[in-house]
């Protein structure tokens, strides 16, 4: 169905200090959280909302798939789901485990169809069916969405939103998202994007939840109008602007023409 990727053990060793422990614990209070994405030099994830844009070269792409093999779940926002029709599986040859896809879809904009790539892949035994986290109450879930997801081994879970955006959208608290994933027995989570998901997790109130950050930087500028990672401004007690987030414990590793930045968020 799709190409098998190779990732050398020597490259894997470089990432090890930033990855969840290999032995998975059966009960965890909070999943190990890795924030990971591919960005351009102007901090864009894609050319425009809804446009799938290849940034990673073959070696950093294989790196991302290796990360997928090392986490029990992979999380994306609904815009990414609708824009990319992603597979959300690990395509490293001989991968011993597959991550559980988690889709953040507060208003149930996704109508699951058997032709969606993530569902085809789960039918083929090449990956797992998604869990969709939604603000919609169980009694209001479309029957067809429930049956298509259930048929594949996926499901919907209600999460109570904690705040609303200026445009009336519901926002979850990341503590609540992680609590649900712990209850599902998922001990590690790779947050893959898109930009709204990443920007919301980079809010200073959530820095203590993020265990590591692994960013692929591609040698390209996407230009104005891109989907940009740029978290909300932070301020000190006097109201003076301060950096929104900073990494320490930083390592830079070239992978082909890209560079992969590993670090840990400074806790506020
Ligand atoms: N380069 C990369 O690594 C990468 C990774 C992922 C996605 N992408 C690209 O990013 C683009 C999509 O990004 P985007 O920013 O438009 O959308 P997104 O994927 O971040 O989804 C945004 C939606 O997710 C929901 N959401 C986000 N945070 C939430 C929260 N805290 N609580 C509840 N709901 C929340 C909201 O409904 C919001 O409208 C696509 O073009 C995709 O191709 C690139
Ligand atoms: N690492 C990375 N490099 C990229 O150049 C790129 N565009 C993404 N984008 C991440 C986003 O989540 C996509 O939707 C999935 O990468 C698609 O997932 P599949 O490959 O179909 O499994 N991620």
From TrEMBL:
Function: Catalyzes an early step in riboflavin biosynthesis, the NADPH-dependent reduction of the ribose side chain of 2,5-diamino-6-ribosylamino-4(3H)-pyrimidinone 5'-phosphate, yielding 2,5-diamino-6-ribitylamino-4(3H)-pyrimidinone 5'-phosphate.
Protein name: 2,5-diamino-6-ribosylamino-4(3H)-pyrimidinone 5'-phosphate reductase
PANTHER family in the record: 2,5-DIAMINO-6-RIBOSYLAMINO-4(3H)-PYRIMIDINONE 5'-PHOSPHATE REDUCTASE, DIHYDROFOLATE REDUCTASE FAMILY PROTEIN (AFU_ORTHOLOGUE AFUA_8G06820)
Bacterial bifunctional deaminase-reductase C-terminal domain: residues covered: 31-261
Homology family: Belongs to the HTP reductase family.
Catalyzed chemical reaction(s): 2,5-diamino-6-(1-D-ribitylamino)pyrimidin-4(3H)-one 5'-phosphate + NAD(+) = 2,5-diamino-6-(1-D-ribosylamino)pyrimidin-4(3H)-one 5'-phosphate + NADH + H(+); 2,5-diamino-6-(1-D-ribitylamino)pyrimidin-4(3H)-one 5'-phosphate + NADP(+) = 2,5-diamino-6-(1-D-ribosylamino)pyrimidin-4(3H)-one 5'-phosphate + NADPH + H(+)
Pfam family, one: RibD_C
InterPro entries: DHFR-like_dom_sf, RibDG_C, Riboflavin_Biosynth_HTPR
Pathways involved: Cofactor biosynthesis; riboflavin biosynthesis
Organism: Bionectria ochroleuca (Gliocladium roseum)
């Amino acid at each position: 169905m799709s190409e098998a990727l190779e990732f050398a053990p020597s490259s894997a060793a470089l990432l090890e200090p930033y990855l969840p422990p290999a032995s998975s614990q059966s009960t965890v209070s909070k999943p190990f959280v890795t924030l990971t994405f591919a960005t351009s030099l102007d901090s864009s994830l894609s050319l425009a909302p809804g446009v799938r844009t290849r940034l990673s070269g073959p070696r950093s792409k294989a790196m991302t798939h290796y990360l997928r093999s090392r986490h029990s779940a992979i999380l994306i926002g609904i815009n990414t789901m609708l824009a990319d029709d992603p597979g959300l599986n690990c395509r490293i040859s001989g991968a011993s485990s597959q991550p559980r896809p988690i889709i953040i879809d507060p208003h149930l904009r996704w109508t699951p169809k058997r032709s969606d790539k993530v569902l085809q892949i789960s039918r083929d035994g090449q990956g797992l069916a998604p869990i969709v986290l939604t603000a919609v109450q169980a009694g209001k879930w479309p029957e067809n969405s429930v049956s298509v997801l259930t048929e594949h081994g996926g499901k919907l879970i209600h999460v109570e939103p904690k705040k609303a955006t200026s445009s009336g959208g519901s926002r979850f608290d990341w503590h609540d998202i992680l609590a649900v994933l712990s209850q599902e027995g998922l001990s590690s989570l790779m947050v893959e994007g898109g930009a709204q998901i990443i920007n919301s997790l980079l809010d200073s109130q959530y820095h203590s939840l993020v265990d590591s950050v692994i960013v692929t930087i591609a040698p390209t500028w996407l230009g104005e109008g891109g989907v940009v990672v740029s978290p909300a401004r932070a301020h000190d007690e006097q109201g003076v602007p301060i950096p929104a987030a900073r990494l320490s414990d930083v390592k830079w590793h070239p992978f082909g023409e890209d560079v992969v930045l590993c670090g840990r968020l400074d806790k506020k």
